[in-house]
Amino acid sequence: METAGFVVVDKPAGMTSHDVVSRLRRLARTRRVGHAGTLDPMATGVLVLAVGRATRLLTYVTGCDKAYEATVRLGRSTVTDDAEGEPTGGAPADAVTDDAVRAALVPLTGEIRQVPSAVSAIKINGERAYKRVRAGDTVELPARPVTVSRLDVHAMRREPDGLLDVDVTVECSSGTYVRAIARDLGAALGVGGHLTALRRTRVGGFTLAEARTLDELADLDDPVTLPMAAAAARILPGREVDAAAARTVAHGGPLPPSGLTGPYAVYGPGDRLLAVVAERDGRARPEIVLTTPDELV
């Protein structure tokens, strides 16, 4: 059977998520590699990748909540809302108090409507927003609902030229732009703001504690650090079935309902991952099948 499973990478700064995918393709000796959730080149930290047929599980990771450590610089705005973009304005933040910063973060916490950064991968009429910005177009994206469940300040540092750096921890729903939080904080305080550092510490239950650097992965005989069945167990509820039911599922057939809600993984004898199913119309029907009938022999 082909190599299949998850790899939790500690992405370095300066690489795109696609660069990391390309590197893992070489290490795993397969082109069948994907990732769950893009990190900007400036950002570091947790990037969840899948190899082989485990790439089909990524759809169940993409919507997971995420956590970050970030630094917001107040006193300057940029076209990209981060340190990689050209300055677009700002005002000295010398008069901005610590209490004012904390107060301005309150409306940015909870269930909010956030306008994504114009330099994002969101498509407008089939074209990525960041490509239109780089071509000189003015891009206005609609606000969308996101949840910022945690936005804590750890430190504030006064820097030269009227700049104020604010270190924060962010826990948020998928689709939240931390760059947009920096932008909106600066706007609320009237001084402008952008992101200077971003490190993702968690995607769902995948954390930095288990992440490997690309150099560490290169030293392994097999870069897959979490086999497919174990990966599924981390992101989905599970159900075990006997050999006869396993054959049914492997052929794409339905099972009797179990009462579990939402998609869940089905495991056969030997803890083999068979499929991901969802219950509807009184049956548990496969959404994806991950084991063929021949592999059950």
Structure description:
Residues 237-290 form the tRNA pseudouridine synthase II TruB subfamily 2 C-terminal domain. The active site is at residue 40. Keywords: Isomerase, tRNA processing. The protein is an alpha+beta fold and 297 residues long. Strands 1, 2, 3, 4, 7, 10, 11, 12, 13 and 14 form a 10-stranded mixed β-sheet that branches. Strands 15-16-17-18 form a 4-stranded mixed β-sheet. The protein folds into 3 domains: 5-64 and 204-229, Pseudouridine synthase (2-Layer Sandwich), CATH 3.30.2350; 66-200, Pseudouridine synthase, CATH 3.30.2350; 236-296, Archaeosine Trna-guanine Transglycosylase, Chain: A, domain 4, CATH 2.30.130. Helices cover 20% and strands 36% of the residues.
List the helices and strands and how they pair.
Elements: E1 5-11, H1 17-28, E2 33-35, E3 44-51, E4 66-74, E5 77-78, E6 87-89, H2 98-105, E7 110-114, E8 123-124, E9 127-128, H3 129-134, E10 144-159, E11 163-172, H4 178-189, E12 193-203, E13 206-207, H5 214-218, E14 226-227, H6 228-235, E15 238-240, H7 243-250, E16 264-268, E17 272-280, E18 283-289
What is the CATH topology classification name of the largest domain? Pseudouridine synthase
Give the low-confidence spans: none
Strand percentage: 35-45%
Rg (CA only): 22 Å
Structural class: alpha+beta
Pfam families: TruB_C, TruB_C_2, TruB_N
Organism: Actinocatenispora rupis
Keywords: Isomerase, tRNA processing
Domain tRNA pseudouridine synthase II TruB subfamily 2 C-terminal: 237-290
